[in-house]
Write a structure and sequence with these properties.
Layout: E1 7-11, H1 16-27, E2 31-36, H2 40-48, E3 52-56, H3 62-76, E4 81-84, H4 99-127, E5 130-135, H5 148-168, E6 172-179, H6 185-192, H7 197-207, H8 216-227, E7 238-241
Parallel strand pairs: 1-2, 1-4, 2-3, 4-5, 5-6, 6-7
This protein binds nicotinamide-adenine-dinucleotide.
Length: 255
């Protein structure tokens, strides 16, 4: 799975799943470009050292995305892999959601993937090949209460995935990765909203058939595999990495 001389752009690459992707792709010899609004990404890039570049970038803004892709190319000579991972979670129903909140979630979770693909794919075409991975969620298939904008944005990412796969085949492959509950700062922030975070944690553990929540590194390893030549027959699909979350009928028990 060597990415020697390849350049991977990781959005939201400073921490959580994106941070793990940055580490895994770097370990596999890729040049990694971390795009994030959180300046802590600079510390991760410095820790990774050579072949790592942090660019502070709000990936929901086209002029920032375009400038970041150009900077990545002027630094490393091209773009081969794009992991659209940046995302935010908000909790509300349709009737509770303001227009601003709806637009924010759509812009960060969905429009960013469109913008990054729009400005990265022409550089992949110059190379003759490329891979786009969109980090969606199991919430593209199953859902819970109070996540209307989030679950909508993640479901729409699957449509974007198919469109990119169809429009740019065979040179460019595109897949969606759909994680279950993963132990990241986003998840810990969500737990902190509850009066009993330990109980919510246990609930999450129990929802997964493997009786644990996932690790960011597990998603990073899957993204790296899908981006590699070993996965050359994958395109257009949504791949769940979810410990079996949501495949049982509620309340079903062994006889
Ligand atoms: N953690 C989970 O349980 C889980 C489950 C399924 C899907 N996901 C998805 O995985 C992705 C990563 O989630 P995470 O849990 O690692 O989140 P996280 O909050 O821990 O990390 C997300 C990163 O994205 C960055 N980011 C947010 N908005 C940005 C913007 N506009 N521009 C650039 N960077 C931005 C943040 O600064 C942060 O570094 C998200 O798309 C999320 O929806 C997470």
């Amino acid at each position: 799975m060597s990415f020697t001389n390849k350049t991977a752009i990781i959005t939201g690459g400073a921490k959580g799943i994106g941070g793990a992707c940055s580490r895994v792709f770097h370990r596999e010899n890729a040049n990694v470009v971390l795009l994030d609004t959180d300046p802590i990404g600079q510390a991760l890039a410095e820790e990774l050292g050579e072949r790592a570049l942090f660019i502070r970038c709000d990936v929901s803004k086209e002029f920032e995305v375009k400038a970041a892709m150009e900077k990545a190319v002027s630094t490393f000579g091209g773009i081969d892999i794009l992991v659209n991972n940046a995302g935010i979670q908000r909790y509300s129903t349709v009737t509770e959601t303001s227009e601003e909140e709806w637009d924010l979630v759509m812009n960060v979770n969905l429009k960013s993937a469109f913008l990054c693909a729009k400005h990265a794919i022409p550089f992949m075409q110059k190379r003759g090949s490329g891979v786009v991975i969109n980090v969606a969620s199991v919430q593209a298939f199953i859902s819970q209460q109070n996540v209307a904008p989030y679950t909508t944005s993640k479901t729409a990412l699957l449509g974007l995935t198919r469109s990119i796969a169809v429009d740019y085949a065979p040179q460019i492959r595109c897949m969606a990765v759909c994680p279950g509950t993963i132990d990241t700062p986003m998840l810990r922030d969500a737990f902190a909203l509850s009066p009993d975070p330990a109980a919510v944690y246990q609930e999450c553990v129990d929802m997964h058939l493997v009786k644990r929540i996932g690790l960011p590194e597990e998603v990073g390893e899957l993204c790296a595999y899908l981006a590699s030549d070993k996965a050359a027959f994958f395109t257009g699909q949504a791949i769940r990495i979810d410990g079996g979350l949501g495949i049982t009928i509620a309340g079903s028990k062994k006889a």
